[in-house]
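Hello Y.,

Per our agreement to keep a running log of every chain we model this quarter, I'm adding this entry. I've kept the format consistent with earlier entries: sequence first, then predicted structure.
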Amino acid sequence: MTKSKPYIVAEMSGNHNGSLDRALQLVDAAADAGADAIKIQTYTADTMTVDVKHPRFQISKGHDLWGGDYLYQLFERAHTPWDWHEPIFERARERGITPFSSPFDRTAVELLEKLDAPMYKIASSEITDLPLIRLCASTGKPIIISTGMATLKEISAAVEAAKGAGATDITVLSCTASYPAPPEETNLRRIPVLADALGLPIGLSDHTLGIGVPIAAVAFGAVLIEKHVTLDRADGGVDSAFSLEPAELAALVVESERAWQALGTTRIGPTEAERESLRFRRSLYVVTDVVAGEPVTAENVRSIRPTGGLDPDQIGTVMGRVFRTDAAKGTPLTWDLI
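Predicted structure for the entry above:
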């Protein structure tokens, strides 16, 4: 069992729908739900790609959410304007929630450093951008690395790049980089495998629907859960289809902590909380008033709750014996009575 409850990160992504007011409302919603952090993404369409309408820059037309979109236009729609970063960070800090971001190039890191970003998240698609990882690590701040699509070799290379540049606080997130992600391809069993292979804390960046998958991840040792959030899925937005609404985020906060508490230990046996219940196991009792010399029968001795009498398995041994003394209904049957 990890020492702390899972750290819950609410991912805003492009669910501000182009409105700073909505972005600030998302910060408030995350804080109200009890999330530990709110994460945004720091890029522009021009820092991500080029405006070329060629099939190699186009998302496959069969994609569930963004089919046929060109990368440049998608990033234009989804990006968080850089002049919004400061008010978003300020609102988060006012509300007692940690703001941070995924940077996608050097200029993004420079902006986030000016805002004193407390940590950096490397997005799955950037895990092979080792210069970016080294740049983030060189700040000396905690690094979170998402691993969607990555092989163990690529993950190890990213971790080593971060360590080599000075990172001492690294968390790796198991991730399936499809949107939404099918639960059956989430492969939570790799969480302890990654922990053993890397010797690092492992979390989950989750794109499945609902909260069932991240709750299950806690049982496999996930120390951090990242989920996309929106104010209302019905309002639309680039990631709204697989995002949590505020009430669902609040449920994730509560239930992930409950799952963590439930991990307990490997000890088998009664717990302190079961002490009272132990009293109400069955045992043999006199169930009608009897007098000395009366035989023990199925009518006057039965296995009932609570404890105090002979074990129920002694019923065959005591049948047919006789009572030595009178006994009232509700008397535990003990060897000195028969």
